[in-house]
Amino acid sequence: MKVSGIGIARTVARSAVGALGAPARPRTRIIGERAHIAVRGLQEADGTTAPAATAALEQRLAALPAVRWAAVNAVLGHAVVALEAGSAADLTTAQALTEAVEAVEEEQGLTGPLPEHPAASGDIQRAALSLALQAVAVPVATAARLSQHTPLPAGLSALVSLVDTQPALRRRMTAVVGPRNVDVVLAGLSALAQAGSGGFAGLGVDTVRHSLRLAETVAHREAWEAAEPRVTETEQHARAAGVPDLPRETPLREGPVERYARRSGWVAGAVFTGTLAVTRKATPAASAAVAALPKPPWTAREAFAGTLGRGLSRSGTLVADPGALRRLDRVRTVVLDTDALLTGNHLLADLLPLDEERSTGDLAATAYRLFDGRRPTAAHEADDWTLAPHRPGAGKGRTGRTRRRCGRRSNGCAAAAPNSSWRSPTGAGRAHWSPWCPNCTSPPKGSSRRPAGTASPS
Asked: Against a cut of 0.85, is the pTM above it?
């Protein structure tokens, strides 16, 4: 069956792929006194090739006269180079860096497309193009609706939505046009189909979705640009070993959207076949099948992931893979690395005043002002106040309460039951506080609960 307008759609798709596939971005990016050089095939290299290629890249780049040090970030697929003052503006420096990387690629057999830098504008350009296609389609759809002449059938938009939302069909489209271009191609085909059939509702939904994606990509780039001086400050900060691409023991489970898409595909096919058999017309059959397509849940997940990604980036989080945010609905178990969550400092936890006449708020403010999380066991004095940890072996405090030591000690730090370990010279406003030993998992001896006024790792 010949579908009207399919030739136009094929031409637009071919033109979009050709335009997006044109190499326009430079391999070497110079930001301040740092240069970032993209390396082919480094992210996909195996456990034997990656270390050898990394060592060769760092040695070759560090030998250049304008380079102070070189480090390879295999996770991002880039080599980071610290340049001598004044050499960043020299065009020959960028050319020398590029030639050195290309030589190592040839020696190590590294091939493949160039990885995109997180601060590059490629994702922003593609997201902006997808949004622009929807905007251009609006006047065309208006003219088609007012003239009541739709050159393209409504079933074409349903076909594009089917490819966009069915994982198997989307994978085949990705294999043809590439993972970077698939979203733009589908956005262009959808805009064309909606414009030719006068579909205002579909254009409105797609416009909102691509607007959120554009805002997300802009926030990602701003976060990486803001963090670049910090993450490339030293050679140790810039270097990152590659993560081995180990096969999963079990396949990645389907999310609720994928399950609905798989089931709805069969339902849409059955509805289309049944309607076509009854009406003998393809247009009503396609319109009936559209109702079963999983576009609403797919769009809802995209909107959630886009909003979440933008919020994370605006808070300073570096999102290396935005696609991971779109797999959160498949997560059932969360494993936290406590070492990664801790900052190495201590924080004051609870505070128990021993003098009821003093304000708890004033005592807490004084404690936080005197406390140094980097030196939790050091004594601090200010404004006639003294903050110090419990002294092991001491007798009774002025309140008559017995000081008790924890059964275990770490770096001379002892957790204590109620005592007067910080106070003013006049004895007023005393309260209990003592650092909680990181190795202690039980209350101090003689106490049935964790001591009040503890400092815990943060």
From this structure: no
